[in-house]
Design brief:
Elements lengths: L1 E6 L12 H9 L3 E8 L2 E9 L3 E9 L8 H14 L4 E7 H14 L3 E12 L18 E3 L5 H13 L17 E5 L2 E10 L5 E9 L6 H17 L6 E6 L2 H10 L4 E11 L1
Parallel strand pairs: 4-5, 10-11
Antiparallel strand pairs: 1-2, 2-3, 3-4, 5-12, 6-11, 6-12, 7-8, 8-9, 9-10
Amino acid sequence: MNYTLLSADEIDNIKSFLSEDDYEGFMENPSRYAVCAVDNNRLLGVGIFDAKKVAEILDVIVVDDKRGQIEKDIVRKIAAICEKLNCDGVTIDVYDEDGALMYDEILRDEDFVHVSAATIYKFELSDLDNNPILSKASPDKKIIPLADATDRMKKVFSNELINSGSYDHFMKDDHDPFMSVVSVEDDRITGCVLVDDLQDEYGFELAYLYSQKSAGPANIVNMLAGALNNVNERYSLPDAVGYITAINGVSDGLVNKVLPGAHIDDHINRYAKV
């Protein structure tokens, strides 16, 4: 088995092996690389990673007849490359469909540590009808569409999230500026509910929720109500679906309280090696 490292400039050589999203990621990110496993001129697997300060393994794709056999080697090769590049560490998110038990064993053998677990919930827009919590939310002039926030406000808030290690994608174009909302106090953003359109399904994702403690406990519910009201105006059919990810027990409790019709769709387990 031979392993080859490809940069973004060379990724056209394996374009047919990648999903459209994976391929486009290389076009947008010059620090993205692929480790390719090749045997007798046959491409058997590809590991995709971003060589950032803390590197991130984004995907490991293996042909069906080799699944469970070469994932470990691909992960090991990526970790070794990132060490040579002086990255501070390597992370990987594992979903249920990836083979959670298999990856848990592989990653622990390679000295990765399990650092967090998250739950992805799915619900239908019709589940929000007569919702007892959201119906009590108060209209709040301090909650505005993301599109109405000034560039300065967004930049300051984004830096606060990055510096605290909370979230580094606030300024991403994926977040719909008209469905997403922020709470504002004295020309400063104090919280947000970011909403993304789904690319392959009729619906949306509540991609990130955050509220500063100083904004008060009702702020997150009021922002959710505002964002979901915007969603209702965008999607006219009741079968639109929504997704929301709970990253800890507190957010699990919030989802179960505010969206009682939501059911578990997937889990994400994060591992890291430093």
